[in-house]
Amino acid sequence: MPVTETDYLELIKNKKWRVLRRALHELDSLEAAELVENASKGNKVILFRLLTREQTKDVFKLLPHSEQEDVIEGLAENFQKLARLLSDIKPDDRTAFFEELPGDIAQRLIQKLTPEEQKISIQLLSYPKDSIGRLMTPEFVAIKAEFTVAEAFAHIREHGKDSETLNVIYVIDDNWKLIDDVTIKELILAPPGQIVDDLINHRFVSLNALDDQETAISVFKDYDRVALPVLSKEGVLLGIVTFDDIMDVIEEESTEDFHKFGSVQNASKNPLKERIFNLYKNRIVWLVLLVFMNIFSGAALASFEDVIQSFVALVFFLPLLIDSGGNAGSQSATLMIRYLALGEIQISDWYKLIGRELLVSFLLGITMAISIAAVASFRAPEIIIVVCIAMVINVMLGSLIGLLLPFIFTKLKIDPATASAPLVTSLSDICGVLIYFSLATRLLEF
């Protein structure tokens, strides 16, 4: 019968450490991580201390950053256990943890590492934030081109235990410059006496340590690799980046863009544990700015007070019209941001897209105008022409705003995700009000 979370709490309460240890050791890493995450701060550390050494490495990596900090804080009194934990974590995972901490705390923890691990951590942290150098791990296997296949396997058996991956083996010269890479499958199928140099073609794909992490995402997407070598500008092999590391970056970038698209700054990873003031601070700036932008909509409405009094039915269709323009603009902005992020379009392509977007939005506007005409024919047939024309123009203009804003922001060196849905909607609302009531004033001969 499986042990429940309540059972673990009971074992801790009764101090049945031996039984608790055995139960924990039977869990897989995901189950153990979930148990540690859901425990109170004090119990969290107790559970973590009773895990096996192999479990601690895997569980720590799976925990959210805030939970990792709780574990580190709880283990700080036990220098030996803390030093061992930090040394056991993969260099790239340890770097990701350190860079989330305040500098003074990270520095104190680095001092607890072995001299060799200290050197690796300091080297990785010396690369610019969000660079590929921060993402790479120095744990890989490299062989010489003059090795025989048998010698290569002997080298892999001796040095491959701590390698991040053995799917790809890297071939270097005496100065650690990368010559090529060879898959483990190619080595297995080759005769033991064959020279490694005979298996390579000197064509390989690599990353530069100083490039942005988004470059790595693009290269992994284009070449479908499980790992890629990271080189210095001189071509020296410094480390590797694996696919699982890239998946973490993609998730982080997507989350960041999602928050920006919703006009949220520095969103908390766990709102249940974040301070109320921080949650408020992350959202209030854009909301206040958008309030002032929407004042223009109110001012526009006020200027058409007379026509509204004469044709009250115009107000019935107002929310529908301006929302349609905003929705069309948000769709367009979402697509453009996505295409720019994937590199499928460049900033210089903006003028090529305008004609296509105008045609598509015209067809969308016509379709939506037909739909709204059916409603207007029953509700207010005298303003059908105004409503239909306004719908077509609003959808086209909203789409154009959504198309251009990401390009403008990119040109200004601002993240295009900042061309968020609320911003597109607010601009479309202002333009929509002006267009709708200007048409009404002209066409209704007011």
From TrEMBL:
Q: InterPro entries annotated for this entry? A: CBS_dom (IPR000644), CBS_dom_sf (IPR046342), Mg_transptr_MgtE_intracell_dom (IPR006668), MgtE_N_sf (IPR038076), MgtE_transporter (IPR006669), SLC41_membr_dom (IPR006667), SLC41_membr_dom_sf (IPR036739)
Tell me the membrane topology, using the record's own terms. Multi-pass membrane protein
Could you tell me the superkingdom of the organism this chain comes from? Bacteria
- Record keyword Transmembrane present: yes
Domain named CBS: residues: 136-199, 200-256
Q: Write the record's keywords in alphabetical order, separated by commas.
A: CBS domain, Cell membrane, Magnesium, Membrane, Metal-binding, Transmembrane, Transmembrane helix, Transport
> Record's Gene Ontology CC terms?
plasma membrane
Q: Where in the cell is it found?
A: Cell membrane; Membrane
Q: Which GO terms describe its molecular function?
A: magnesium ion transmembrane transporter activity; metal ion binding
Stretches that traverse the bilayer:
284-304, 310-337, 358-378, 384-409, 421-439
User: Subunit comment for this entry?
Assistant: Homodimer.
Q: What does this protein do?
A: Acts as a magnesium transporter.
Give the matching PANTHER family: MAGNESIUM TRANSPORTER MGTE
Please state which protein family the record places this protein in.
Answer: Belongs to the SLC41A transporter family.
The protein's name is Magnesium transporter MgtE
Q: Which organism is it from?
A: Bizionia argentinensis JUB59
